[in-house]
Amino acid sequence: MSSDKSPEYLVGLVNELRKLPAETGWLEFKENVAQPEDIGEYLSALSNTAALIGKANAYLVWGIEDGSHEVKGTAFKPGQAKKGNEDLENWLLRLLSPRLHFRFYEFDFEGQPLVLLEIPRATGKPTQFSGVEFIRVGSYRQKLKDYPDLARELWRIFETTPFEELKAMERVDAARGLSL
Predict the structure, then answer these.
(1) pLDDT (tens digit, 9 = 90+) per residue, 106-118?
(2) Are 70 and 64 in contact (CB under 8 A)?
(3) Using the 8-state DSSP alphabet, how is residue 25 labeled?
(4) d(CA 127, CA 41)
(5) Do the beta carbons of residue 142 and residue 136 sit within 8 Å?
(6) What is the pTM of this model?
(7) Alpha helical stretches, state H, the chain
(8) Best CA proximity match to 108, nearest among 7, 4, 6
(9) What pLDDT was estimated at residue 77?
(10) What radius of gyration, in Å, describes the C-alpha atoms of the chain?
(11) I need a labelling partner for 156 at 20 to 30 A (CA). Which of 23, 65, 84, 134 fits?
């Protein structure tokens, strides 16, 4: 579990997300449903949709009721979740291509436990989960291959992203970065 964002920042972010009139292509609210395969598909779909509509990140938030955006709390604890004998986060990373630097945040909001999954936008090529690319159409997860117009648009975005906006390298420690 990453903790590079303060609880105050996370509470402010959730307040802003709750103000949206409905879920979007880059935002999904859940209460407790946390099937590993669903999370993987959401990682792909939300990442690809964020790229398609120009957002830096997408979000999946557990503990918020979808329709009303009321804070309900969640029993989902990603730090303790497993798929088989493997930690959920490692399992998801292994099945994502290219790998995403997603982050789970567990925190209290109005006395209720929430989990926020921050998902970076796809860059360079669509994000796949278990070999399949997903996209959001309205508030539904769909296979990207079933929407060729959206797939073409996504590839056009990747091809027109300026070089300067792309990542040169990921997960480089300070010493290695300075040596380069």
Answers:
(1) 999 999 999 999 9
(2) yes
(3) T
(4) 10
(5) yes
(6) 0.84
(7) 7-19, 36-53, 88-95, 148-160, 174-179
(8) 7
(9) 94
(10) 16
(11) 23
| Whole-number pLDDT of residue 66 | 87
Helix (H) or strand (E) holding 140: strand 140-143
| Token pair 């709750």: residue | 18
- What pLDDT, on a 0 to 100 scale, did the predictor assign at position 177? 65
Cα(137)–Cα(24) distance, integer angstroms: 9
**Exposed e or buried b for every residue in 115-143, given b needs 16+ CB within 10 A?**
bbbbbbbbbeebbbbeeebbbbeeeebee
The pair of structure tokens assigned to 70 is 């009321």
> What angle (nearest 5°) sits at the alpha carbon of residue 79, between those of residues 118 and 75?
85
CA gap 45, 142 in Å, rounded:
8
